[in-house]
Write a structure and sequence with these properties.
By secondary structure, the chain is mainly α. It is built from 14 helices and three strands. It has a three-stranded antiparallel β-sheet. Strand 1 and strand 2 form a beta hairpin.
């Protein structure tokens, strides 16, 4: 499906530029009108780019988590002042710098004007708004606490980004050391040990088992390095597909929690996420049972998601 560049004006006459996928120019114009815009010019894919359009290509980047956080924070502030949702989205769209995000917000506005709820509109963009985000917004819509839920969600996103940044910083040094060690070992096995093979063969000396193992590894790396790369790619692909299945994900996640060093760290991260998420939801006025149900969607690990159902069952029976 070809991609068209377009220029259009919104309801108040502001000029907007962007990209849109369509089978032809007629359908492209129809899709642009569905976004609440009036198309002025639609260029064909073969048309050379104008310098402004070339700059637009570089600004047409993926929506980052930081941009989604700013969107949530601004939207929460505007709704808390009493502004209507569509008007608040229009104001946020004007402040967005990312052209892709501008189009996403325009799509949200079009969906709301078409009769969809805000959570249903957000669910159309799962690469930007995950299941937890959509579920929280749905709970906020139902309880009439959308501004508070968005504010709590912005706080959670801030804490999550901060935690990931600190983890990434803490893992840089071990990753560099592991990479250097890997390169040194491969250099020894591939570049140095093969030069000693002829010496060992000429001496006819009986080699110890560790030396034989190293020489065998050196031979395999020199002769069948391509086969090892294919085996690693196939193994990682198979493991990824197995992890996508419910049973495979449950077993792999349970195994990760039993790993030394990494297991306790993952456990602490899960506990921290549970505490922050549940506290934010309850402070926003969400009942505990609904908070536990939403929290399960936040967990990347099936074993913890399943255990949350077990821990929620006493609440269903009326226990504290």
């Amino acid at each position: 499906m070809p991609t068209f560049t377009y220029k259009a004006r919104d309801a108040v006459g502001r000029l907007t530029r962007g990209f849109i996928d369509a089978e032809d120019q007629l359908k492209a114009a129809f899709n642009i009108e569905k976004l609440g815009l009036s198309p002025i010019d639609i260029s064909t894919p073969g048309r050379p780019y104008h310098p402004k359009n070339l700059m637009m290509v570089f600004s047409f980047k993926k929506v980052s988590r930081q941009e989604a956080l700013v969107f949530t924070r601004q939207l929460s502030t505007l709704i808390s002042t009493g502004a209507p949702l569509i008007q608040s989205l229009n104001n946020v769209r004007e402040q967005a710098q990312n052209i892709r995000f501008k189009q996403v917000i325009a799509g949200l506005i079009a969906s709301l004007e078409g009769g969809l709820s805000f959570s249903a509109a957000l669910s159309q963009y799962p690469h930007i708004f995950p299941k937890l985000y959509v579920s929280l917004v749905k709970v906020g819509e139902t309880a009439g606490l959308l501004d508070k839920v968005l504010a709590r969600l912005a706080d959670l996103s801030t804490q999550e980004i901060d935690m990931q940044s600190r983890l990434r910083s803490a893992l840089v040094y071990p990753a560099v050391l592991a990479g250097i060690a890997f390169l040194i070992v491969n250099f020894v096995l591939v570049g140095i040990l093969p030069k000693f093979v002829s010496i060992f063969e000429a001496s006819s000396a009986k080699l110890p088992l560790p030396t034989k193992v190293l020489l065998s590894l050196s031979y395999i790396l020199n002769r069948f390095w391509w086969l090892l790369i294919l085996a690693v790619i196939f193994g990682l692909s198979s493991l990824r597909n197995y992890h996508r299945s419910p049973a495979g994900r449950l077993k792999i996640d349970a195994l990760l929690l039993r790993l030394p060093f990494a297991g306790p760290l993952l456990l602490k991260i899960m506990v921290a996420r549970f505490s922050r998420s549940t506290a934010a939801l309850v402070m926003s006025g969400v009942p505990v049972l609904e908070a536990l149900g939403v929290w399960r969607l936040r967990l990347p690990m099936s074993s913890w998601s399943g255990s949350s159902r077990i821990r929620a069952s006493p609440f269903l029976r009326g226990k504290a």
